[in-house]
Amino acid sequence: MKYVYLLGACGSIGTQTLDVIRKYSNDLKVIGLSVGRNSDLAKIIIDEFKPEIVCFRSKEQMDMLANDKFISCYGDDGLLEVASFHKYENELLVNALVGSSGLKPTVCAIKSNKDIALANKETLVMAGDQIKALINEYKVHLYPIDSEHSAIWQCLQGEDKREVRNVIITASGGSFRDKTRDELIGVTKEQALNHPNWSMGAKITIDSASMMNKGFEVIEAHHLFDLPYDNIKTVMHRESIIHSMVEYNDLGIKAHLATPDMRGPILYALLYPHHLDYSGEALDLLKLKTLHFEELSVERFPCLEYAYEAGVKGGLYPTALNAANEAAVKLFLNDKIEFLDIEKIIKNEISKDYSNQNPTIDEILELNDEIQTRILKEYGAR
Asked: How far apart are CA 282 and CA 254, in angstroms?
């Protein structure tokens, strides 16, 4: 039995994680949850999975939904309380939070000797070196949930990583893949949120449209698989059937193919190393017939270039990249800026001097808060 703590239970990854837990209830048991604004869904989840500790979004929500059957907490401090809760052997934290709020709970969970199943990209983007050091210090495991990194992970099974020539991460191209730069002028929030292949939360859908999501995945891959940035490639693949590939020194390529369904990667992360059955749509190669690949141009998608630049510089630059993007996406979703302003805000931030090459977690969080607060204040007043 694995004892699961799920942060972000009401979100897209969270609800799909619960689908997996529901199917494999003899192997997985929910102990802790954090829930979002949807109180009706939160109540249904709590009643069904009967956790021992729950973090609510706000005190008001906690007062409305709490009872004496579980420990209740709320807000950012509540997330840390759930992540630090420790009662069983073989505990696993699934971090399905969105944004920089996912970093501190990951740190707390590691220090509580929990394995980590990570869907929160920002944790490794902001603090990849620091998280890897903690993983080694506390001798816990880190399992990727992103479909792209799960694909690389699976393609590497049984292989010698020293024989890897490149990893190749695929991208659907996002909501605006068929638009030119000129056609991006004046695009709406509703258009950006209309992803052609995946059903995801608002922030990650906007990040997919700007291609920052793929940039974050490049930085994640660098940390997860100990690869130089020169050996991490990206390619547009409209069908989202091949999720990633690994090219070896003999020029052979292993690819992982599956329908666009996050429950597969979630299941593999939760019950690694087993490939177990789940109720999804099987890939029918006869119906598929053709797969397409195109260049991901950094001229068309400059956020991808900014991610490589920040990743190579290291230190606090990935934190600046993430903070600027997180603030800019909030502004765009609140109709404060245009879509193309996201790129401008990010470029301006990573052009500054962040010389600290070995920051602490506290220094990373302090800079993240400072950048986001400054950008939101500057643009939000318009």
From this structure: 20
- Give me the residue label for tokens 């971090």: 95
> Which superfamily does 2-144 belong to?
NAD(P)-binding Rossmann-like Domain (3.40.50.720)
Its pTM surpasses 0.70: yes
Question: What SS3 string covers 295-354?
Answer: CCCCCCCHHHHHHHHHHHHCCCHHHHHHHHHHHHHHHHHCCCCCCCHHHHHHHHHHCCCC
- For the record, the structure tokens of 291 come out as 């797969």
Strands 142-144 and 53-56: unpaired
CB 224 within 8 A of CB 149: yes
* CA pair distance 224, 226, nearest whole angstrom: 6
d(CA 87, CA 194): 42
Question: φ, ψ for residue 148 (rounded to 5)?
Answer: -70, -45
Please, are residues 308 and 229 in contact by the beta-carbon 8 Å criterion? yes
Instruction: For residue 175, give both structure tokens.
Output: 């909501």
How far is 5 from 71, CA to CA, in rounded Å? Answer: 13
Q: Where are the domains of the chain?
A: 2-144, 149-313
Q: CA 13 to CA 275: how far, in whole Å?
A: 19
Structure token digits, residue 237: 């693949």
CB 245 within 8 A of CB 156: no
CA atoms within 13 A on the CB side of 100: 26
* Model pLDDT for residues 146-203, shown as the tens digit of each residue: 999 999 999 999 999 999 999 999 999 988 999 999 999 999 999 999 877 656 678 9
Give the Cα separation of 293 and 304 in Å (integer). 17
